Amino acid sequence: MSTLPSCPKCTSAYTYEDGNHLVCPECAHEWVPGSESDSQEDQKVVKDANGNVLNDGDTVTIIKDLKVKGSSSVLKIGTRVKNIRLVEGDHDIDCKIDGFGAMKLKSEFVKKV
């Protein structure tokens, strides 16, 4: 009896072979045995304007005055944003700014504190 490796995404032991791929029935992740780059491909690296890697929960500062769409107000340079959350898409930072509420920002307009 051959033992198959655990799923690299959810570490489930119930993997099975499907042709030359391995499949996890719990999270539906498919991979080719021997490819170690699977976990790195799934995670997108988000960097600020200076090239620093951003993580969930970081505090950032806005580096440029940003017009708020649909409003006459402006987010001023130097505004500090706490506890950011990284999301998929063009605007890859989801946050809550005091005085403005929930916002989505582009990582190119912030720097890590």
Automatic annotation (TrEMBL):
It comes from the Bacteria. InterPro entries: YjdM (IPR004624), YjdM_C (IPR013988), YjdM_N (IPR013987). Residues 46-113 form the Protein YjdM C-terminal domain. Gene3D superfamilies: 2.20.25.10, SH3 Domains. SUPFAM superfamilies: Prokaryotic SH3-related domain (SSF82057), Zinc beta-ribbon (SSF57783). Transmembrane segments: none annotated. Coiled coil: none annotated. Pfam families: YjdM (PF03831), Zn_Ribbon_YjdM (PF08274). Residues 3-31 form the Protein YjdM N-terminal domain. PANTHER family: PROTEIN YJDM (PTHR30305:SF3), PROTEIN YJDM-RELATED (PTHR30305). Belongs to the YjdM family. This is Alkylphosphonate utilization protein. The lineage of its organism: Bacteria, Bacillati, Bacillota, Bacilli, Bacillales.
